[in-house]
Amino acid sequence: MANRKRNIQMKFYVTEDEKRLIDEKMSQLPTRRYGAYLRKMAIDGYIIYTDTADIKAFTKELSAIGRNINQIAKRINAGGPAYQADMSEIRERLNEIWQLQRHILSNQR
């Protein structure tokens, strides 16, 4: 043990599904040793981080517009009048969506 090149042991737990995924990915490589595979992935593997804040804001705006449209449609279907203020609000919300979409697309370039 004293002459080992790698003398620090690391342990971690995985679920059955995670173990299955590790096995599937490992089967694509020539190695059959977990230690070699996990060490290589931990050192040279890639971490992909995606900032979804813009997409969440976009989804929130879409949901708000959907609720407004549903309320207007329900009132009209019940025989109520369609108000110009409702149509203006929908146009404003659509403009917000277009602005958010342009912002998201410009940040991805």
Give the radius of gyration: 27 Å
H/E series: HHHH
Overall pLDDT score = 84
Number of strands: 0
Distance between the termini: 52 Å
InterPro entries: NikA-like
Protein name: MobC family plasmid mobilization relaxosome protein
Pfam family, one: NikA-like
Describe the protein in words:
It contains four helices and no strands. Helix 3 packs antiparallel against helix 4. It is elongated, with a radius of gyration of 27 Å. With 109 residues, it is mostly helical. This is MobC family plasmid mobilization relaxosome protein. InterPro entries: NikA-like.
Quick overview:
The protein has 109 residues and is an all-alpha fold.
What characteristics describe this protein?
mainly alpha, 4 helices
Topology:
Layout: H1 16-26, H2 34-44, H3 53-77, H4 84-107
